[in-house]
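User: Show me an example of a complex going from sequences to structure tokens.

Assistant: Sure. Here are the input components:
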Amino acid sequence: MKILKQVNIKPILFVGFLIFIGISYFVEFTPGILIAGNFKDFLLQMVMVIPPIFLLIGLFDVWIKRETIIKHLGKGGGIKSFLWVFILAAPMAGGLLPGFPIAYSLYQKGARLSVIFVFLGAVGIGRLPMVFFEATFLGWRFSVIRIVASIPLVIIAGIFLGKLFEKKDYKLPNGNMLNQ
Amino acid sequence: MYSIYILTIVLVILSFAINRQKTKKAFVIGAKKLWHITPPFVSILIGVSIVLYLVPNDVIVKYLGNADSYFGVVIASIIGSATVMPGPIAYPLCGILVQQGVAYSVVAGFSSSLMSVGVITFPMEKAYFGSKFAVLRNLISFVIALIIALVFSLVSGWLI
């Protein structure tokens, strides 16, 4: 449960929030009602996305061998690793938030840090559902220019950050709630 | 959205057909991880809903609509970093901005930082990967958003 300590969550925050919302509705306090609406929208969106993501993480944990990840996404994976993580990120839903636990699972199975950085970058720039939205409202030209400009930047940044962190022998915090 | 359900269902059925025990284990692992991540997750959602209230769409339109290009890019990228918005809200907003005459570079800075820089999600990122990782990744993603905006200002009138 170390991660909870790090994020420093207290149930009182949530309870306080609920009380605030309840009172807001009672006295018709508009900001409170609007915030509650935002919260509901986001919660519904995440509730739709999160459970299948974690089920996939579970399957990944059980079926994919560590050696496979090390071979393709680890130290000897080469430039092809980046192609893999772009493919992995493309169908993702829900943005960075569900991206973190997936990236963490990849890292635990032996993916190297630069690959993790590129994966998170790819989650930001290259999710297909988002690209369709973007193209609908801003046009295909916009999407194509943005993606063509983004891909090399994300890969170069990932390689650079990976090298930097590996040089310093960076260790992730071992508040490892995922293995409990 | 549906694609992820189809993918999950197909893989679960496949997994179950090959090995029931392993599939059960996968469910348990997934459920445990989900359980552990729920409290920080909910608190981030609370943060997001408050920030979204404080920075509503018409405020974004007002600030970006009047800003000149270079200043606008920086402001747009900062707003994009500070907020979290689901795509179905973000891109229609971008469309409105363009219709109001906001430069493509400004919109690109906004949407890029929105999608890859997360100030609100920082606590979660820090918990998984540590603060150095989270700080540097967000900083570099912010710079990338600025460069993408620059690319748009270079090609505007020519490609777009």
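The lines above are the inputs; the final block is the predicted structure for all two components together. The CA atoms of residues 126 and 132 of chain B lie 8 Å apart.
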